[in-house]
């Protein structure tokens, strides 16, 4: 009987570990998406600036940690190409993020995982006193 309870405990621990791994993967994808969106904004700003500049004007581009001197007409097509690639990558990462979210929700439902404070957070926002707003922390509970 003790081996059965040990097996069940390990199984629950494995389930929790897998759930935490899925959540970490989802966070990593969200961080990557955020970084890519910042890069896209930066590329758009630089492209807008360079389009108004003289095509023969000198500009500098950082390539692999090395600052290279080029002209605007050489750099602008490369930047546009990079911007398009970043936009495509953002689309792919967004799709991966939504897939990971549905995989995470499916895993939660399959293993009946509830997170303490998940539903409490929405109800706590309706509360009136700031004193009632004690620090709420999410706690993973597996049944």
Describe what this molecule looks like in 3D.
Strands 1-2 form a two-stranded antiparallel sheet. A two-stranded antiparallel sheet has the order 3-4. It contains 3 helices and 4 strands; from the N terminus they run αββαβαβ. Residues 1-7 have low confidence and may be disordered. The protein has 143 residues and is α+β, with helices and mostly antiparallel strands.
Task: Give the secondary structure arrangement, pairings included.
Blueprint (H helix, E strand, L loop, with lengths): L1 H50 L6 E6 L2 E6 H39 L2 E4 L3 H7 L12 E4 L1
Antiparallel strand pairs: 1-2, 3-4
Helix pairs in contact: 1-2
Low-confidence region ranges: 1-7
Structural class: alpha+beta
Q: Spatial order of the strands in the main sheet?
A: 1-2
Strand content: 5-15%
> How many helices does DSSP assign?
3
Summarize the structure.
With 143 residues, the chain is α+β, with helices and mostly antiparallel strands. The chain has helices at 2-51, 72-110, 120-126, and strands spanning 58-63, 66-71, 113-116, 139-142.
């Amino acid at each position: 009987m003790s081996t059965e309870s040990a097996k069940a405990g390990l199984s629950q621990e494995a389930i929790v570990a897998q759930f935490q791994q899925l959540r970490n993967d989802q966070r990593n994808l969200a961080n990557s998406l955020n970084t890519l969106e910042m890069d896209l904004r930066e590329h758009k700003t630089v492209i807008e600036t360079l389009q108004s500049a003289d095509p023969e004007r000198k500009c500098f581009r950082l390539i692999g940690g090395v600052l290279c001197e080029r002209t605007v007409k050489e750099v602008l097509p490369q930047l546009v190409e990079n911007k398009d690639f970043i936009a495509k990558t953002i689309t792919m990462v967004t799709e991966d993020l939504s897939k990971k979210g549905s995989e995470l929700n499916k895993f939660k439902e399959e293993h009946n995982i509830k997170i303490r404070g998940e539903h409490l957070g929405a109800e706590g926002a309706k509360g009136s006193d700031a004193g009632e707003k004690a620090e709420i922390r999410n706690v993973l509970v597996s049944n």
